[in-house]
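A quick aside before the break. I want you to see a complete sequence-to-structure record at least once, exactly as it would be stored in a machine-readable document. Don't worry about memorizing anything.
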Amino acid sequence: MQFSIHALDAQRQIVALQLEAASEAAARSSARGRGLDVFSIAPARAGLRVRRAGAFPTMLFSAELRSLLEAGLNLVEALQTLAEKEPHGERQVVLSGLVRALHRGEAFSQALGAFPRHFSPLYVATMKASERTGSLREALGRFIDYQEELERVRKKVVSACIYPAILVVVGSLVLAFLMLYVVPRFARVYEETAGTLPFFSRLLLGFGSFVGEHGWLIALCLVSGIAGAILALSRPAARAWLNARLWRLPALGSRLKTYQLARLYRSAGMLLRAGIPALRALEMAQDLLAAQLRSRLVEARRSIEQGRPMSAALGSAGLATPVAARMMAVGERSGDMGRMFSEIARFHEDQVARELDWFTRAFEPVLMAVLGLAIGMVVVLMYMPIFELAGSIR
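That is the input. The structure line, written in tokens, reads:
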């Protein structure tokens, strides 16, 4: 297996190479045997690799920066090394801007704050908190762990939705082909015997005749409807309206709320472990919540400012499940709310993943049955006159 490696040589210059090895550990060991200090290793991908010049991978930047700091480079040297690795593009612009800001005497968090499109307020705040304690590597590690957990949940949600989405798309295309292409042609065949056809067959073939006569108009309406839906969903007001309707569904709304609370706990836990005060951490995590929950978080923060325990304040605002409230109470007694928030987040993320897995296992057979039944009914209604004719001949 091929591995792509970035490392520092004996002259502290960055080098890139590919090695054949049985595993990542073997590739890393082989590179170290050549006197290289590895700070980035990943499986080499075959074929062309398309990279967006404008994208700045914050996760990769954090991982490589931490590796270089652990290798003994100071912050400026590490950023210069990463800048030299990117000869052009927006990544090089950002990295060079960070280096120039540090040379001007600015703090690392201040330099990051000059690029809000690439570094979120959570990221900047975490780095700023690390400047007080001098634990930049630990802060980068916390952010990497935070992103990996979010990515783990996102991948579970996406993977659970892929197969049902494929079924819906393929089934819809087959139905569209039958209704818009096959049925109109059958309708022309049965034009002379339309009065003797079964009722539902007459309805289906009548629809086919209408489609055959107004095909371009129907296609124009379909394209306009799809374009209108895409345009509407691109507007924040339309997305907020749709989100509000989804939250009102009893079964779906509670799951969406659990997922949102898990994001709140995960973000607040990372900020608390970075040394940020609880009220400030909740304020920064507020923008990650859906609009329906932000006002509740403001109410909970007011209660905490008045001296109420965090578990009671979040519970009374509807932002803590019974399990979360009990675990927060334990965290308040132990004084380690950061770690406890992370444990609560993991509990609820696993709960969401289990429920999503159960739903997809139950929904996929139902969806297949519905699509199969719809396609089968169309086919049977088209061929029913032929079946009746064969019966009368017999």
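Two observations worth writing down. Residues 46-54 have pLDDT under 50 and may be disordered. The chain has two domains: 1-50, 164-394. We'll return to this after the break.
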